[in-house]
Amino acid sequence: MTGYSPDTGIAPRRARHLLLALVGAAALLLLAGLGTGSGGWGPLLRDGSDPVAHQILWDIRLPRTLGAWAAGALLALAGAVAQGLFRNPLADPFLLGSASGASLGVALALALLGVSPMATGWVVRLGLTGAAFAGAVAAVVLTLLLARGVQHTLRLLLSGVVVGVVLGALGSLVTLAAPEVLQGMQAFLLGSTAFVGWSACLLMLLVWLLCMLLAWWLSPVLDGLALGEATALTLGLPLARMRMVLVAVLALATGAAVAQTGLIAFVGLAAPHLVRACVRVTHARLVLLSSLVGGVLLGAADLLARVLVAPQELPVGVLTAVLGGSYLLWLMHRGGAAQGQGAPGLWACP
Amino acid sequence: MSLPLQGMATRWLAASVLLAGACLAHAATVTVTDDGGTAVTLRQPPQRIVSLLPSLTETVCALGACQRLVGVDRYSNFPDSVTRLAQVGGGLDPNIEAIVALRPDVVLVAPSARAADRLRDLGLTVVALEPKTHADVQRVIRVIGQLLQVSDADRLWRGIDAAVAAAAKSLSPRARGLRVYFEVSPAPHAAGAVSFIGETLTRLGAKNIVAARLGPFPQINPEFVVRADPDVILVGDRSAVGLDQRPGWAAMRAMREQRLCVFSAVQTDDLVRPGPRMAEGARAMAACLESRAP
Prior knowledge:
The structure holds two protein chains of two kinds.
Chain A: H1 10-34, H2 42-45, H3 51-85, H4 98-112, H5 117-146, H6 153-177, H7 182-190, H8 198-226, H9 229-234, H10 239-261, H11 267-278, H12 283-307, H13 316-339
Chain B: H1 2-28, E1 30-33, E2 39-42, E3 49-51, H2 54-62, E4 69-72, E5 86-87, H3 96-101, E6 106-109, H4 115-121, E7 126-128, H5 134-148, H6 154-169, E8 179-185, E9 189-190, H7 196-203, E10 207-208, H8 222-228, E11 232-236, H9 253-256, E12 260-263, H10 265-272, H11 278-292
Parallel strand pairs in B: 3-4, 3-6, 4-5, 6-7, 8-10, 8-11, 11-12
Antiparallel strand pairs in B: 1-2, 8-9
């Protein structure tokens, strides 16, 4: 599925074209992002003369646009790593329970808010962002503990499912006990890029750089795994340790994105598929290209979220699901009609 | 020897002028502590206010500062004048850019709003307040009064308190001590004795079938209501559909004898918003108890 293809001939050229197109799209989104918001183009024109317009442009629109790109890139990177690691085209960044963990963290933080002055102070210091990140990472650690390491893929997958379901249920229990947190939880579950500032944006970009380098470095493991676990072992790779690092990349990338933007559906699942629909490349390129696709996807969704019902906003998670889902379906059927089969990996490139 | 004396006098004069200046500056600054425990200081009472919570919007208006509001959330709908102000999204999904563009001196939010940190980062003054109980309403009125530098904010509270007491007093003896069930959503979530609604009901002399230890808005088993057999059932109009189709409910005494109050959406706002309109809420509930008492 994530087939190994030699780095010769037409594939690298197409990959290069795709890379250029994605970088171009990201740059366009950045420009469009600066001109889009409840104030329209106004702040862009008054930038020099008006301090508030300046602030709207440079402290709200720019970090938000960059942040949406970074969150999408992180989720798609995590998705590509997860699909390679588990050799499963349905794997997504939330596979190891991080979504439920993050929701539980946020639910607990919201429920504790206002219970007692001490609890409130504690929650205010940690912040919902901190609670979500801690929850996401703790869920992955719990999954690893239950699976007793990363050696056994199926055990890891099942533990992830169990942790996801149980933590999700615990989160529901918290909202049941304190129904006043329901609205806050809903806002988190739908995901939003509206509150991304410079600190959040830089943090996500740094994490992205780190995870990208690690994933790039470990991509031979993913290529090896694509040939089957036994074959990967015969290649002489220190599989256990490298897998552990890949799981850490998965957890870190997902946690960072979820903490800043909430649960954004579908980017992580769809982005690697969209890349595979266009080019067949090794994991080193797949991870990078997927990440760029994810960035463009979430960037575009963020832009639409600001435009569609302006001056109000749509939750960006709803848009990614609708946009990414329909695009993926369209690709699948087009590919299926052209080649008489709808198997993933055989889609036609747009 | 007049020179040193003169010098001393000058110094003394300078010191007193400084002191007076400091006092004046002190009188103009406003400091309040919000529900997040943050001490917020403003150089002067705010003239441009954005409110992201309906109960806070209503409190600002009840304190006579409605004209200082420049933007509200999409759920703020009272008094009428606020519906003509700029809407900046909901309390939980506010439009940051729209708020900044309004150049507010202060933004009033609920402590659970994620936007609060973001707005503080952008250099805005944010006061996080969330009234949940009668005591909270009194406290929030005092804090906002302090913030706006309104003289005698407590008078507003005393007026509300007196109106609730009057509503309780207006009840005839047969409408007191009724056992009541208040449903806030068809999950069903009940308003417990410690909730804002429950506190009002208690002041009206009613006995809540949902005990205080169950928390403010517990989700309950519909069977619990059948077994508790309340004298009067109070619901919002969204909850009212299909009540008699719930297992066992049609046979309940309150349902059989139609001792059921259904509140309209407007009335429900009065009832559920912990703000200055709680007196209207108390009157609506008192009227219900009076008309449905056995």
